[in-house]
From TrEMBL:
PANTHER family: PROTEIN ADENYLYLTRANSFERASE FIC-RELATED. Keywords: ATP-binding, Nucleotide-binding, Nucleotidyltransferase, Plasmid, Transferase. This is protein adenylyltransferase. It is an enzyme of class 2 (transferase). SUPFAM superfamilies: Fic-like.
Amino acid sequence: MPVTDPYLYPDTDVLVNKKGYQNADRLRIFETTRYLSRAITMPTATNSPSALKNLHHHLFQDVYDWAGQYRTCNLSVDGRKGLHPQSIHQSVNAVFQNLNANNGLQDLSSDRFVRAAATHIASLDKILPFRHGNQQVTLLHLAHLARNAGHTFDLSQLDHDQWNRASSQAAVNDERLMTHAIASLFKSGRTMTPDQARRETLSLRDPARHEIQSRIEGATRTLDAGRADSITLKELRGLREELKALESDTQVGTVLRHIDQAQKTGIEKLIVLPGRDGSARDAIYAIGRAAVRSFDLREDQRAAQGIKAEQAHSSSSWFARASQKLSASEGTAPQSNGLKSRGPQIG
């Protein structure tokens, strides 16, 4: 029995809209125009579910009556199923409670921000709180988080195909590609060759060791004075483990192996995001992350090219493309019984 979607006009996959357009192309043009107009000035609050809903309402208020409201039906996007409508409110609240518990991802180096932001955005992606416009809202929410944390961010650099693959992987708890996709949006990265990365990593080893020793001494003084709490004790244990790894060359050796691995795949340059306050520890970490990111992105590009090549030679995909062209020329929306996210994407 066909699934009924209350958000669609009967027997179409076109969302009910304020203009009454029942042609997908006309709605897409109208929505994109209004969305871009609203995106010029946007609310900038980022730290609550209401802020997320306000952002959605601001962007889509001219197009849909339900702008800014959580969906009331089940939803699947590109094979990813969103949470049941009854779970949305509580789940979104939990995501933002975690965000605020981490100080809105502020006071983090670029690389550490990227990893934390990937986890946050992946959590929202799994929920799919709105009937439509989830990707647009989460990306702009991400840009606000980055700006409020003091990072220079450029959404125009987004690779949408890569982002869709990243969302699919994050849905099964693999956030690596999403982490790399977010990192690619930073405008403050340094470019270096693998050889330069090796030399800089080795040169940072002693400064990093001195930084850690200084932090250990400070935490130890706090402990000796009887003012240490559980957070200080946890930090002290972590610092001692980090110093041990650095002195045994475990940490630096791991970074050098990542650089070697990237170079062996033909990568000629690494984009290294800035560390925090000139920290040598963060700089070593950032170089290692840059090497891992370059390698993983190269593997993703190869996989994506393989998929495209396979699709290009597939008779079924040829038939699907031909059918889409014929449908488009008739000016009518294709029929669908599934609940899917429709409409324009950013870019």
